[in-house]
User: Fold these one by one.
Assistant:
Number 1:
Amino acid sequence: MRQQDFTLWPIRLLLHITGLYGQCIENLAELLWVKHLQTGGLWQLNMQIIYLLKRIAEEFIIMEQNNNQLVRALGLKESISMTIGTVVGVGLFTCGSSQIGLVGSWIIGFTFISLLISIWPCLIYGEMSAALPCAGGTYNYAKRGLNRIWANLSGWHYIISVVAIGAGETLAFSNYFKILLEQLGVNIAWLDSRVIATILIAVFLILNFRGIEQSGKAQTGFMFFFWACSIAWFMYMIPKVHVEYFGGIAMNELPPFNEMMYIFGLVWWCYTGFETCVSMGAETKYPQYNLPRALKISVFLVFALNALFQWFLVGLIPKAHYGILAIADAPYAEGLKAVGLGGFPIILLCIGIAFGGDLSTINPGIAAPARYIYTMAQDSALPKVLAKVHPKYKTPHAAIIVVGIINFILIATGSIDYIASVSLISLAVCYMIGCLAYLGLKVKYADMKRSYVAPFGKLGCYVTIVLYCIMLIFADKIALLTAAVGSVACLIFYCVFTRKHAPGLVSVEEEIGVIEEPTPEEKAKMDKVYNIWKIATIVITVIALGIYLVPMLMGH
């Protein structure tokens, strides 16, 4: 530290208290300099004053900038964990798998088709996230590729949908947690699941409040705990699987087409949130590499996990008990109870689902939408107070509080099915806007540097929009009405507030900042880690597909 710097501290304190810092001080320094040129005299004193004032201005300008910037602390592992954590949870372990009670082993067909219609959007988002690695994801893409109206609409729908995933997850946790305690001899059936869910949300609000790095590490821990419990449960339950349970459907004839589409929508919901890591682009290290890689890995891991768990449920539960599955809030636990597989299998299952799968979804269900709110507030699409970043923890704490409030409201409904329908509709709308934004970016920013390019991206956009529109036609009507009301509210808010306060677009360089390139050694290490993830993903995906072929090869 230079000698003059020691003199800054009391002045810094005084100026901070009185509020006389930043640009005003810089202007004053410039004025003194001009005055000196005009009058001469006291060269050394004037220079010292000018130096001090300039240094103070720089210090406080930097301080203000740093206090409102997020920290790039997430790597590939954390990005994958955040994404899979958001996706794998309430859908798979509640309403998604309960559809086995209606379609039996045909569930794998629904799951595989869900994978197919999710791959292209993942690749499309991979390209956009590599080019525009900033907080806000679809909001920022739509703002630049379309306009602010579409951007606001996508932002609102994304916030609602991902918060809904987290809220539904807390209720799912509550259901599995109560069954776990029941198996351990503690009966808390009298306790409303909403109470447990509310307490759980409060805990995760605190966790996310304290920092994204801490939250990311916790996320990774949840995911690996879930995997460990899952593998142990799989190995224990394999001998109990009945191959003869596979084949055919759960009813005498196929359900009507509209019901089939409704069932498919709930199964596809098990994939929604696949772009979670994109919303945290401003907190991702080397996002030009890590984000596209995380998206490509995550979508296949989600399929594998869904397929594996569904295979076991089909192989363990005979058709006679499908009626229980169709209406179950916790189909895996309730299905095992129905066939007399209580005790250790249910205990291990509930521990893994509740403390691994569910917790890993709740965590990013707070982190991701909070980053959307933060970004939109920074951009004056929402009140500026929501763009506040905690001076110590560097987290968007005001936005996190808003996410908590929305969670509490959704939890109060107590309906996972309603929450699921609201979430899938809003996410489908968000993804369609994202596809439109992709097409717009290709035109408006044709020369933008793209470290990753989605294969046949434009075609993928058109196909995705058509398929998602068809799916929404058959969604829950009350949830559709809710989404429509939310859209109207968003448009009104835009006209009343956003249009008056929104600034012009800044340059891409200014918005995303300097994106560092890894050193050759770092890049080699990143490539090695990615290849390990890729190989593991291929293996587990092949296994997940292959196990459904076993009953067919055996003639069932």
Number 2:
Amino acid sequence: MNKYFFLLLSIFYFNKIVSQDINSDTIKNHDTISISNIKIINKISFELINVKINNNQLISNEVSYLKNNININERDTLSMIIQLKGGNNDIIFNYYFNDNPNYRTIENGKIIYDKSSKRIYFDFIPNNEQALNKFLTWNLYAHENNFSFSNYNFFIEINNLDYAPKIINKQIDKIIRNSYSYNYLPIISDGDNSNLFKLETNAPIDDFDPISGRILWKINPNNINELEKIFNFKLTVYKQNNPKKFDVDTFKIIYSENNFAPVFSKTSKWIVKEGENYEYKIPVNDPNVNDSIIIENIGAQLPRGMKLDKKNKKLTFNVDYNHADKVNSTQNYNLELKAYDLSGLSSQISLEVVVMNTINPMKVQEKITELISELTNHKKGLDEINDNLKWIESTSKNNRKIRTFSAAGITFLGAVVGVISANSDGSRKAVRLAGPIIGASGAVLSVINEVLSRDDNEIKNLLQETIKLQSNVKAKYDRLSFYENSPNKSDFQNQEIDLLIRTIESDRESLNKNLFTISENYQIIISENRIKNILLKK
């Protein structure tokens, strides 16, 4: 009686473990399937991972809370990073604003999509007009081969604050020739009917309107006192009810009879490196002592990160890491610059800019973290399979010598079948099928011994393959770990670590195939179907 009670209890334990096996119905109901750390992800999603307002980093719980909306003030600087998750590498990203597919650009806004990292970078400084509209909707879309599609709507509420009036069309220094009048009407943002203007100048102007700010000056070319003389202007706009809120425009005007075009000096290549900041003083002068020079870019759009200071005649270049695509390569840009004097005479020059490739340490660190996480999962899965196979091999030899149905035998059976188990109707059926057949301890022992002994060579071969793959994964893991916590920026910019990462990524497909093969063979060895088939033969 006790013997049969123990047998029933053992079968119950067996049923409880194998009932957790994976079946096709379970797979169909999941977006992500994991088999020995091999993941298939179908759905594309958007995740807001970074938000800054005026360079102030929002804390993580605020970011989680925001989700789809944010409130900022006029003239605030908003910076966001949105991560695309899921899908493969061929994701197509698109966007527009205010639910209008034709509204693709936004004033004072910049959007960059990094395809390699699948990150979207958004920078925005709302002006007064945008603040008056109060709301802005950013509509984001992502799809992949017309298979997986996702959208994300981000709402920005803009507060219209009481800022000081601002002169938009501020004047530059001018030399007036052949034209005998000067007429200037300032354009004001954040303005209303309460704005007033004040003018300070040594020019003999004819009219000034303190309400509109208009300046009118009819120049007399016969008046020697108005020739070759610098006239200074200082125009102030302020709120009548709050004079502390104001803006100022200062400029100079010269009336002259003789003029010469600006002259460029000879230039050479401007060589820069990725990840560095540079300043280039444009070599140009004007023969007219009192003349001013304005520089314009008349060629293609300036390279990303480059800015032209027109008045101070210089270029600044914040060189990021995405100009030159290949290691040890360069990216060349040809600038066409034109210099104007105040009366409109000009000259131009070509400037070649050479950007030398360097490795982005931030991306290398991110990639190392990503690969270490991936290899850690591989190591864990392989270690588990390795340990179980060794235990199976050892236990199999011992159990073949046993001629009675022991607790160890049934525990082993349950452990083997339950290693990678999940809910399965097939498992329960196998147990129900096994119940009538297992009528005595000798029969059960015979089944167990046959399961454990018939494929010794298969287990041994799989164990060898597992050990081999373990060694491969560990070697890559150990090498990456050497760099992971390095405090030296140069460690992430050498060719060795770049080659290592490229090698691991190129071997990823082969590694995943081997992992999948080992996982499949391992599951076959310990599967309930094997036990079921053997039981059916008994």
Number 3:
Amino acid sequence: MRKILDAASHLPDILISWITPNVRQYRSSRLHVVWLLALIVGVLVAIAAIVFRTLIGLFQLPWLGTATELTMEAAAAQPWWVILAAPTIGGLIVGWILQKYHPYQRAGGVADVIEARAYGGRGLPLKAGLWSGLVTTISLGAGASAGREGPVVHLGATIGAAICSKFSLPDSARRVLLGCAVASAVSASFNAPIAGVLFAHEVILGHYAVSAFVPIVLASVMGTLIVRWWFGDVAAFVIPQYEITSYLEIPAFALLGLTCAAVAIIFQFALIGTDWTARNVTMPLWLRPVLGGLAVGTMGIFVPGILGVGYEATDLALKHELPLQTMLILLVAKTAATAITLASRFGGGIFSPALYLGAMTGGAFGLIAASVFPEMASSHGLYAILGMGAVAAAVLGAPVSTTMIVFELTGGYALSIALLLSVSIATGLTQAVHGKSYFHWQLGMRGCFVNEGAHRLLSETVKVRDFMDPPSENEDPDALKFDPGSDGPYLHDTDSLESALKSFDACGKSSLPVVRKGNATRIVGTARHVRGLRYFNAALIKATKEEHV
């Protein structure tokens, strides 16, 4: 009995010894601040998303006569010259803003947010985000063929980054708040809170650490609540209740995944090809969206369903209200129109176009399947849902969050087996061909290879100035003089760690003098091989810990 009482008397001390390190870690990471800021970020980003959608409607009202997303029928009712003029004039305004006011001369998107995450949640100025938001609302309001979700994600991320800048937070916390902003933006765009959480983890953070889960959920929930209060709790696409006719259709679902992979691959090649062409054509910046708007407007005269975000056409495909020929035409025309739109520097994303193309692919596939096996085939509206998820997942490189988005957009959880099969096949085959998502291709063009792992990213982002030893205060000034022509190998303070390690291997020395780029006549530090490796290992450990805590 005495032993039991003695043990009980020490129980508080034992509990305190267990709890204290966890509380200390919680406070040092400033998670209590992050949780509070997550709520604020969720609300502000949702409000920004509402304003964003409202502005698109206001900009399309003068030429379409409606501020709603039902643009296909409205565009078909307009004279041909209105369809031609709207995106052309919109392109002129966009070009003028990009050339005169936008600091980066291009609208931002999801790739910029992923890059900012890689650099500790930095590199997203609010001014650039606001200009990008304005450019995108004008673009989509004028009929440019692109999506609204990616730009909202970028706008939300700039708001989150601006709030972070007011607080002294570690890089891990800044990255989490970036994920919070993205989760709120996605949930506000689609009325899909679970998808917002998964997208932030899967695409932006690149991990599912528990420490990030709570604040991201808080932000996503707040974003959903604000948007539902404003727009109502209605799914983006209200569709009939579809059911799988027979599990003998499983091979057809697999074949649909293969077909969607082909569409996703072609779509990405179209985006990459038109972008490369535009980069290699010399013309004034302001003229690019004008010519792009003229091309999109010309296509819109004959195929009005390609103009704008395209939710009405997607909805019609999901409700099996489009004939086979129309869906095939829209599939080809939307691919071309979106590629031209983005290559022309219009603002916009690829999320909505990917959903659009997937719905057309699935719908057309379902009609063909029904004609071959009429007794076994399900409604082609069901195939449109599956195709929507498969193409979008393959293009975005986000199979988990895209699957959940489709579930929340349509309410079609009964299709889980078929959707997962189609999504997995389409994503796997697309990755086998392209090797990366469209976002990671964009980043690769900028020299940021986040998809290749933390080691590759750190070797590029860590600079010699981060680990070099500066000269002592008592150093003889004459000893710091340097002649790059005769004093042997050296490093610049802005060289990457990867470049420095190659220099060490090439010369066989354990230390090298460091000079500034543009002024190589004075030594500003000494870089040591061992110190560089130690810095690299510490950074890798820190990154690994952040991804698993």
Number 4:
Amino acid sequence: MSLLIELLGSIALLLWGLRMVRTGVMRSYGNNLKSLARRSEGKTLPAFTSGLLVAALLQSSTAAILISASFAGQGLISVGSAFITMLGADVGTSVAVLIASQKFTTLAPLLLAIGVFGFIGSKVNKWQNVFRAISGLGLILFALALIAATAGGLSELKQFTALLNIFEDQPIFFILLALILTYLSYSSLAIVLLSVSFLATGVIGVSEGLYLVLGANLGSGMLPLISNWRGSIQELTPVLANLIVRVVCILAFYPFVDFVATFGLRFVSMELFPAIYHLSLNLIVAIVGIILSKNILALATKMLSNLEEKELSQPSFLEANNFAMPAISLASAKREAIHMAEISQKMVVSSLAVLRDDNTALRSEVIKNEDTVDNIFDSIKLYIARILQEELTPTETQKALNILNFTTSMEHIGDIINNSLMEISGKKIDKHIQFSKEGLNEIISIHEVVCSNYDLAINTFVSDDCELARVLYEKKQELHNLEKRSVTKHLQRIGKGITDSLETSSMHIDVIRDYKKVNSLLSSVAYPILIASGEILESGWKQKI
């Protein structure tokens, strides 16, 4: 029992070390990941390399894949680039496993000393996070040494060996075991390293170790999909494509595990075998994925399109029998308002991908979402009108009006996206023209700010927090300044005679001004809260009822 507790403790230490590395790198260099993603957009090798580097640095392909999916959802990179980046991330984790599986355990005390004392002594936040990552690496190496020592003891336990003997001829057991452990630990890297330690100490045979690697790889493909299941089509498509190519290659590898286990030992030591096998598998997955990327992405898109609509076109939370209890009916209205806001937010997020990639399928989805927003808005208006017929306190009346103002803003945002930005995208597609590289980057920067402010606006509406309202209000001027700089730069490019800028001149200006309008509507969410607190005068704000 004591050996099992020691093993669990060692695994926990390994997972914590991985977490520290990931946290340290993200806090130190997380802001640089977006620029890295942008620079690799549309280029296979840079996209693949960026995924490899990010996963190796974060010690997690899952984290790198989720970041790529998020960027695709925001329109920062295309779905195709996100998919290639994910393939690179899987290889990056394999490289991390290969390096970590080497006998570097003697470095653990040194890395821990540097990391801990550096963290304590540093006053700069960035350097503290760098030292945090170094400490994490030390913990990983230390944990691997503990696992190896503990695993050696397990191999001598009759009960443990008897249990393994039961499943010796059941490869599915080891695949499922690795899959479950990967899900529970949220780290395929940890499970592969565990198999390396078990194999090196004789706890399991070579074949069983390779089956664990297959299960961990399957888990690494499933984790991002499970974690991101409620994401947009743009986010889900590359994640599902990554899982599809992974499943196909694992099925192809499965029948030959025993042959590879016997043949491979002639060339590779037993200690390195799982790591080399893991790397080989992911390299083949990457090659197949890159070659067949268009077909795999098309299949993923088709599979997702066949799923039921995740957003209902009709209200989901309006309870018609609660009008006698205004507090409950107002809560229902507020919940429906948030539902509506999330749909209009999805339209804003997707609009950039439509404009950049000329994505006609996504354009149709955005236009369809506008009908959904209108239907829900009409229902909320009628519901609020019915609530106002009851005997309400002044506070309840104001809450009802605030909900109506909020949903009005969300409906106006939907109109801007549908009636203006989607019209612009249609003209752009028909004329076969593209924004200049500089102009597109400016649009992306403005879009990022708007998307960030959208989350802030919804949180402000939900919480009625005065501090959040103040921040949201101040963000309006920030985007105004950004819009002015973008227009000036665009006019300068026109003056230089840059072809793309000339062809898209009016479109470029209209797009950034439309995003400015969206941001102004988001900022209006803060007004009722700031008026109630006395920070701004009611005369300075016109209600939109």
